[in-house]
Each structure stands twice: as C-alpha cells, then as structure tokens.
Design brief:
The structure is a homodimer of 79-residue chains. With 79 residues, chain A is an alpha+beta fold. Helix content of chain A is 30%, strand content 38%.
Chain lengths: 79, 79
Amino acid sequence: MKKATFYHAGCPVCVNAEQELLNLIDTSKVQVEIVHLGERTEKISNAENEGVKSVPALVLDNGNVLHINHGATLKEVKG
Amino acid sequence: MKKATFYHAGCPVCVNAEQELLNLIDTSKVQVEIVHLGERTEKISNAENEGVKSVPALVLDNGNVLHINHGATLKEVKG
C-alpha cells in the first residue's frame, strides 16, 4: 500500500482539489492522509520539510510533491 | 467511465507529474487521454478554452482543471 499526504488549509481551492483528487485516486493502492494545516498547525513544519510550498499539495511516499492549483502559500497559512 | 485529459509539453516537471498521477489514478474509473501540446499544437486552443493556464494540467470531465506543479505557461508552450 502506497501512502500519500494531502495538505490543505480549508480554502475553497483546497476543498475543490481534495474532492477531485479523492475521486481520481485508486484508494485500493494508495492510502491518503488528509491534514488540515489550519487546524493542525504543528504539522506545518512537517509539510515544509517535505517540500510543500503552498496548499493544496499532495506529498507522495517517494518524496515527490504535487502542488495542485494554488490556494495559499505556507507563509499565509502560518499567518 | 469518467474521462480526463492530461496536457503537458514534455518538460521534466510534466513528465514527473504524469508518472506520479498515472500511478495514483484509478484507471478502472477514469480514462486519461494524454496530450503533448508541443507535438499537437492544434490542441493548444482546446486547452486554453478548457481553462488551462500552464502545464502540466489535468482537465476533468466536470470542467474542473487541476494545475499540477508548474512546468511552463501556455504562452511559453506557444513559443
């Protein structure tokens, strides 16, 4: 089972991307953890270390980061 | 069967995104057409009309566009 983390911040662009992605992804092959960085601010540094620049973003277990559309920068999420 | 179109221009960011996406997508539910806009320039106007601003991008059959990372703007693709 592959793993992926979807980081978002509750913004409309994020919610839209989340819905679309979860509809596309083969959940029998990939387990997606969804992390709301607005609610779990302790995870912002994880996201940063993993290479996330903006949300929404999907981090794959091979280290690749897919930034999907543009909701907010991590800086904006930190506030 | 849902349909989606993946537009790219052969750039490294595009190739990477394509590989990652195709690994994630449930191909039993979604049929993905891959269009190389560098080779099929007649498709650039389609992409533009569908709301694609940069490549790589995935256009879904509900009209939503997911811009994934950033390889090149459509303007750059036109050259």
